[in-house]
From TrEMBL:
GO terms for cellular component: anaerobic ribonucleoside-triphosphate reductase complex. One of its GO terms (biological process) is 2'-deoxyribonucleotide biosynthetic process. One of its GO terms (molecular function) is ribonucleoside-diphosphate reductase activity, thioredoxin disulfide as acceptor. It holds the Pfam family NRDD. This is Anaerobic ribonucleoside-triphosphate reductase. InterPro entries: NrdD.
């Protein structure tokens, strides 16, 4: 699938999907153990002992299976030479028929991620994929809840490997008509949609792509005039709309033959060869994303303050509300599932800024930084604690339901997992989707395992042996939502260097 599409793909409830097969394996092993007791050892079957042995064999099978998934994703490249952008979404309800088996699967996924995967030097390192998302709900979010032990394991995993990221089921239900489901890859969320039976459907749906709006450039052109900002903003929105509709016009001509695994063999549909995919473009089945970048810079240019200041926040919310009013109108006019999306801007953070710097010169705290701030995020340089950051950014989440995520920069907390658990509980109560960034690097020259920093020349340099050869350094950073390990463009590198700690 990854080779036949752009962007990420998710397994929406890997624990729920695999759990019934774990139960089948248990039945198979139990039958085999009983047979061994009777035929090999010549004793009457001891069912209690037989079940104990069967569960041990099941655990070994789960371990082998999860290990296979993890190593295959990290060693089998797609046609563009990258590891598949796969997300494993872990969520089951306590009343689920196979809850015990689902919990066993989640536990093994977390334990194997804590261990990491071996590199060519036979050292366990942090893999970038698959991305892990752990869902917080009443049965696991608080101390004393029945599956809290999994959350404790998730916190330990976060401290050592950055993943998993966290979704609050409670907060997500507030924005998505009571539903809890995986993003498509990193942060792109579908809008709720019902099939002909009235049942919500998320699996097998998709996003048609994104066009992103450069908010700082509008702020520069408006010259501090708020009304002029919105005049230009509205013109740019119409341009974005035309670009997005052009995408639909081109896509709807595509036939199922372009990617049989998606369109003919069931990943999305089971169309006949030669049949067009047009019917999936309308009615909200697929989403079409309007992205945006640089709310902080746009606010600074227009109001003279950060959007964390009261006056700036009011302006930022006005922009978001205006975005959504246009999205609503476009949906009504076209019957297409437009959605507002906080663009990850892996490279766009630099490209937009670079273009504006060439055109407008150095503007303090805007173009002179070399990057623009992602979506509605707090400026990466602004001192703010993790709780205030999550509280502030949570106000924008339900206005960016096509995709968004918040993060906190934290130090090495492998020896302070209880503090991570405190932050996780705060996520459950206050914000729908959040993640933690820490430093997890390795030098292949000297074996240094810790934080590799940027020197004054903006080069990654091992603090022990001063190795600067990128081919012999593994530097893992949160690029936006995914972990990145292939180094970054100049702007993103500067942004990473400027990030302040939030705890």
């Amino acid at each position: 699938m990854a080779s036949g599409q752009y962007g990420g793909q998710s397994i929406n409830g890997i624990d729920r999907i695999l759990a019934p097969y774990v139960r089948k394996s248990f039945g198979k092993y139990l039958e085999a153990v009983v047979e061994e007791q009777r035929d090999v050892y010549g004793i009457e079957p001891d069912m209690e002992k037989a079940e104990e042995i069967a569960w041990k064999r099941v655990k070994k099978e789960i371990k082998d299976g999860i290990q296979t998934i993890q190593y295959q994703i990290n060693t089998l490249m797609t046609t563009n030479g990258q590891a598949p952008f796969v997300t494993l979404f872990m969520y089951f309800r306590p009343d689920y028929e196979y809850a015990r088996e689902a919990a066993m699967i989640d536990e093994e996924i977390l334990r194997q991620r804590i261990q990491g995967i071996k590199n060519e030097a036979n050292v366990y390192v942090t893999p970038a994929f698959p991305k892990l998302i752990y869902v917080l709900d009443e049965h696991n979010a608080r101390k004393g809840s029945p599956y809290y032990y999994l959350t404790e394991l998730a916190a330990e995993c976060t401290a050592k490997r950055m993943y998993p990221d966290y979704i609050s089921a409670k907060k997500m239900r507030e924005s998505y008509e009571g539903n809890v489901f995986s993003p498509m890859g990193c942060r792109s969320f579908l809008s709720p949609w019902k099939d002909e039976t009235g049942a919500y459907k998320f699996d097998g749906r998709f996003n048609m792509g994104v066009v992103s709006l450069n908010l700082p450039q509008i702020g520069i052109l408006a010259g501090g005039d708020e009304e002029k900002f919105f005049q230009i903003f509205h013109k740019r929105l119409e341009l974005c709309k035309k670009a997005l509709l052009l995408r639909v016009k081109l896509l709807k001509r595509i036939t199922s033959d372009v990617s049989p695994i998606h369109w003919q063999y069931g990943a999305i549909s089971r169309l006949k060869p030669g049949e067009t995919v047009e019917k999936f473009m309308y009615g909200g089945y697929a989403t079409l994303s309007l992205g945006y970048i640089g709310m902080y810079e746009a606010t600074l240019l227009t109001k003279g303050v950060s959007h964390t200041a009261p006056e700036g926040k009011a302006f930022a919310h006005r922009v978001m509300d205006d975005f959504n009013e246009h999205i609503r109108k476009w949906r009504e006019e076209t019957n297409i599932g437009f959605a507002l999306y906080g663009t990850p801007a892996e490279s766009l953070t630099h490209r937009f800024c670079q273009k504006d710097r060439a055109r407008f010169g150095d503007i303090k705290d805007v173009t002179d930084k070399g990057y623009y701030t992602n979506s509605y995020h707090v400026d990466v340089r602004e001192p703010i604690n993790v709780f205030d950051k999550f509280a502030f950014e949570s106000e924008f989440e339900d206005k960016s339901t096509g995709g968004c995520i918040s993060y906190a920069e934290i130090p090495n907390m492998t020896h302070n997992v209880p503090a991570i658990l405190t932050m996780i509980e705060y996520i459950y109560d206050r914000i729908s989707y959040a993640e933690f960034n820490t430093k997890l690097d390795y030098c292949h020259e000297c074996g240094f395992d810790g934080e590799i920093k940027l020197n004054e020349a903006n080069e990654w340099e091992c603090p022990r042996c001063h190795n600067k050869n990128k081919s012999k350094l593994t530097v893992i950073r949160r690029t936006c939502g995914y972990l990145g390990e292939n180094f970054w463009n100049e702007g993103r590198t500067k942004e990473i260097k400027d990030r302040v700690m939030h705890i």
